[in-house]
Amino acid sequence: VQLQASGGGLVQAGGSLRLSCASSDMPSGRYTMSWFRQAPGKEREFVSAIHWSGGSGGRAIYTDSVKGRFTISRDNAKNTVYLQMNSLKPEDTAIYYCTAQARLISSSIPNPRAYNHWGQGTQVTVSS
After folding, report:
1. Using CB atoms within 10 A of its CB, is residue 113 exposed (0-12), middle (13-18) or buried (19+)?
2. pLDDT per residue over 49-89, tens digit each?
3. Residue 6: what are its φ and ψ, rounded to 5°?
4. Tens digits of per-residue pLDDT, 10-38?
5. Of the candidates 25, 29, 19, 28, which has an alpha carbon nearest to the alpha carbon of residue 94?
């Protein structure tokens, strides 16, 4: 499984970015697709996920600090997951990683160790 993240960049506080995570060899509709981020000197932290637990849909999950500002979505036809980030803050500055895992239980979603497949990361920098 290969994941390709893109869409990062430099933006002023209050601005927006949309990150994309594409996979060429994985049916994203059957995986839990998640975004994590890691700021310098800090541990990798969970941002958002679309949790697949069967059927055709998925449940969106967000860490508290991004609720109401970030929106995760998935285009199964394109095997791509998006993270729309609005009202960005300087504390959102980090490298953002997409990741995927099949058969993930809900309690494991925020744990980076639960995932086996990671993209290369894309830098998001928010200036004040």
Report:
1. exposed
2. 998 766 666 789 999 999 999 999 988 788 889 999 999 99
3. -155, 170
4. 999 999 999 999 987 766 557 889 999 99
5. 19
